[in-house]
Amino acid sequence: MQSSGPFPQFATFPVFRDSVIQSDRIFKRIVGKSLIYDYGLFGPHRSSIPLPDPWPADLTLPSLAVFQVAMFELLIHVGVEPDMVMGHSAGETTLLYGSGGGSREMVIELAIARGIAFRSIEEASGTMAALSCTAADASRLIRLAHCDGVDIACYNSSSAVAISGNGKEIDQVLSFAAAEGITATKLKTKVPVHSAMMELCRVQYQSLVGDVFAQYNGARKPQIPTISTLTGKSLFSAFDAKYFWDNARSAVRFTDAMETATRMIPNSVFIEISPHPVLSSYIQDQTALPHQVLSCACRPRKEQGPAELSAFLQMLGNLTIYGYNAVHFHRVHPSQQSKKSRDRSSFMEYPFARKAFPLYSDMPSMQKQLEPHNGPLNHKYLRINQDTHPSLAEHIIRGEPIMPAGGFIEMVFEFGATCLINVEFRSILSIAAEKPIPVQVALDGCHWTVASSGNLHAEGYLTYDHPSRLPNLDLPSIQRRCEAHHSISMYPALEYALNYGPSYKRVIEVHLNQEEALVVMKGLTEDIFNDDDYILHPVVLDASLHVLCYSQFHANLDANVYYLPDRIGRVILHHPSKAKYFPSTRLFVHHKIVGWLPDRIISDVAIADEDGVILCSLEGFLQEYLCWLSSLKQFVNIFIVGLEDSTAGLSSDLTQLLSLDLGATIAYYLYNSSQPLDCKCTWVHGRYGAVDFLQPLQPQGLHPHSFDMVVIFAESGQFSMDSESESIFAFSRQLLSPGGCVFLLTLSGPQMASPSYPSPETLDTLQRSAEEAGFMSLYRDIHDFAEGQSSFFLARFRPSLNDAVFLTMPGAADPLIYTYHEGREIDLQWFLSGLDQTKALDIWIAALCGREGDQASGLIRVLHLEYPAWRLRLAVFPSSFSKKRRADFIRTLPVYLEGELEIIVTESGGVLVPRVISCPSGKSRAVHADAIPPIPSSKLIAVVKIVAAVSFGNGYGFVGKVDGGNADYQGCLVGGITESISGSWITVEVAHLFLLHEVYKVFLESIRALDTGLAVAALAPSLSAFNQPTCLDGVRVLLTHKSSSIGRVVSMIYKARGACVVEVEADLNIFSLSSLRKEPFDLVVSGHTNSQFRQISQILLRKKSGRLFLWDAKDSGLCSITQQEPYTIRDALSSAFPLLHGTSLHEEIATHTEIDVEHHFTSINTTQQLFDPDKTYWGKMPLLRMASYEAHSRVAARIRTCSQCNIESL
């Protein structure tokens, strides 16, 4: 209120005028002057007292209170009654009146008292200023300016604060703000309210305000819901003098108050009562409906007529439009007619006359409206493009907006997860389409997927367990270690490939050393705060990873290389999940490199707040350059040149390298060699021979473009000429699949035939020839060693899209395609009968994955022999591929797949091809004659009286005495496993029984518990493996249910056999299990049967060779083995029982009292018999339909399971 003169409301509205006059009388009684007549306020009278600029506080505060009280009464008069009230700074004085906590007299006297106290410090050189920045930035500016006399006075919004204090120090802070481009405005006031300088008037303030409260000693509690901006919370206690001193001395927590208000009434309409809107912009920033923020008055601009009345009427009109129907418009524009007959009931109901539109539950539109949403990026009807999610569309890679990795992570956290495990990014999700793309976010047990239009984009596992909090980051210590410092100039260095929009450019500072980085970045600031209620905002999460693309961090200075996320071991929330998880203050991100290769970086990432508290961590974050891998390779094909001319030591080194278990089968071809490598590993397979590259490769037994790597060993100087280096890449092009690599190692030294040494010019020649042939240089270097020098050159085959290798197959434009269906082989016969058997034809058989695909694989191998002139090919597709999509896919297959007769297409559009590998033959099982006595075929049944039994989930381990049936077992003590025991007698097949010999000295109370554990111990690694004495040496075993009888026995036996056993309890804690994934297990033994444990076990097991045994599983557990392979249980117990002698468990058994078997039984009347002796049973063995293609289909299924080579990821 910085201008005197008439208020139009004073002349127009009698209620407003009467209220001002009553308040002015109170002011005149105490001060001795009139606001209306002496100061010329409100009414038509001119001021008789000259006023300084700015107005003194003892005039500003009372006049503001008079105006606000009058406007509040006018709003009540026209029907606008508040559901909730709050005040800002001086506005809390009038709040006392608006909430019903105090009278008009008390409020005006309180404003006068506060004004007098404030006036006393106007000469103390204090002031205030408004800053358009976060509170964290304001605090930082104050620290930079070393201004201890400045405080944050008002938290107005997430990006707007006010500061208060000494005038000179305020000016210093403003100069620092201007240097950083922060908008700042110095306020017209001499009172540094809400700062430490208020202590100068503390005594006088408390005395004057205390007298007011002493005079009005009635109840001063709010009568309607009231929110305090002193605390930011709802106010339920009474107003008192202390509250108003704290109001003047403490900061205004308007942001907290707004959060409370919007939570209490989410769709509120806010009306600001002030002579001119000051708070409206702050309120709009903090509400979901910014258009519903109104003001009841507006100060006119210069050379503009009065605007107060139009502002008031516009406010009432907008209020009505927004659904408030209680405005008394006849009181706004009174007339004789309105006084007689017009009232509120004559107005129509908002917005129009109601009309019923029934929505039935089976209507798609109704179902869509009622469908629950897990979150903004996780619901059934999710559609995404750059229009639906504009903030995500600012993530631009190579000119195309794509979904950031943080977007996929956010989708899964919206399931309510606390930890994501083995996150794999399979393919990009472009959001550039004009029409929004449907995206499916699915959860199966603990396995999740994100897909669209049949393309798999990301997958992994999740858990809802509560992770423990990590120790705080020591930010100063990390910053001291990271000596190199970079500012926001990081982003121009990324623009060659990563064109981030403004909201993604959040990194402020980067501190680096060779192994780690500390990134300072913006948190959930105002520009993205009002986006959807994300948990981990994708923009913030993605920005926290930008430093991994910074060349100063990954040290790859090739301008053609950029990095994209490939997979993450674990993403963990260390605090309870909630919307807007990240704070609005600065974030500190710590990156630590834990693994590095020329084409990838593995790092651990921790995101912390300003105090170092870790909010979120990413373990094992893998960045792969240039491409998103669609899956891991399971088969690697290597072509090796020059090894026959190298030293024996190099051959030995290569053999040792290939012998490493990398989780993939390796096939190699030794060029011009007469013998294979001396490698005994089952996953390495070699061929050797001569190859003429001037002739077609296929007749020589090699498929073009089928190798993943070409390795060349040569002496230095051998490839110094352009023509020689060109020949390297010429034949490498013939061999390599797109994406494959050529690796050249040259050696030099006195012992070499050519003693010349490698030079940078030689590497330049190689790089030039590589680029001309469609290769991209990845790595080049020269190393010194004791005997000489070696040079390394690594390049990847990256042909352009118009390269010849990407041309479609010959004849693919109009192929012959037949869709195979199970049981309709006659239709296939009819299709083929119309074709010329002597003509060379390309025929494609298309089938869906699963049983049909396996059968088609077996069938096509038979047809190859029957129709040798035809080139029969098989393509197996996912069920999501339509017939048209399958045909289009076949027509566009590139020429480099021409040599493949069978392909398997993945959901993401990748291509897998089968490769046949040899498997080690199984060992014959040792049979103990004493455990399997000769039994006549006519005596297959035995009646056993139970001595002792113990349950293990779906079955029982038992010990009993044979008391009928097979005569050879009569009176013998036996043990075994059965699904059910209904009494003291059971009838079982003899094949299910294990004979307990006297040499084992029976202790029944212990044997009954051992029986099941011994079977599990022998069967888990496979019985043939268990029978080998050294099979468990050094084997890593994960054992659950460690406290159970089964777990105890298994642990004892495995440890005695040399295994490394990691034991956990029976509680299924997926988060804890995932922490064990750093080193793979060879064997997992567990009593869990649910799908979540099965899924998480696949992460823990060693790829290809790992084995999972669930003893209680219905399809593969002990009871299932007992029914399907009864002799296996007996063999298992025979193999395991002898191991008890000399063990700690045997000593434990020996402490039990030996039981006399003959006197241990009690008579039981009930018996259970398998067959009725008075009936005759007849049965037959079903004939097996033997067909060659069925046998082939089973082999095909086995091969498909064992090994698949991913062409797309090479």
From TrEMBL:
GO molecular function, one term: transferase activity
Cited Gene3D superfamilies: Malonyl-Coenzyme A Acyl Carrier Protein, domain 2 (3.40.366.10), Polyketide synthase dehydratase (3.10.129.110)
Residue ranges occupied by any PKS/mFAS DH domain in the UniProt entry: 363-632
InterPro entries given in the database record: Ac_transferase_dom_sf, Acyl_transferase_dom, Acyl_Trfase/lysoPLipase, Malonyl_transacylase_ACP-bd, PKS_dehydratase_sf, PKS_DH, PKS_DH_C, PKS_mFAS_DH
KW Transferase (keyword) present: yes
GO biological process terms on file: secondary metabolite biosynthetic process
Entries under SMART domains matching the protein: PKS_AT, PKS_DH
Region (C-terminal hotdog fold): 482-632
SUPFAM superfamilies with a match to the protein in the record: FabD/lysophospholipase-like, Probable ACP-binding domain of malonyl-CoA ACP transacylase, S-adenosyl-L-methionine-dependent methyltransferases
Location of region: N-terminal hotdog fold: 363-469
Keywords, sorted A to Z: Transferase
Active site feature: 395, 542
PANTHER family assigned to the protein according to its UniProt record, in alphabetical order: POLYKETIDE SYNTHASE 37, POLYKETIDE SYNTHASE 44-RELATED
Name under which the protein is recorded: PKS/mFAS DH domain-containing protein
Organism classification: Eukaryota, Fungi, Dikarya, Basidiomycota, Agaricomycotina
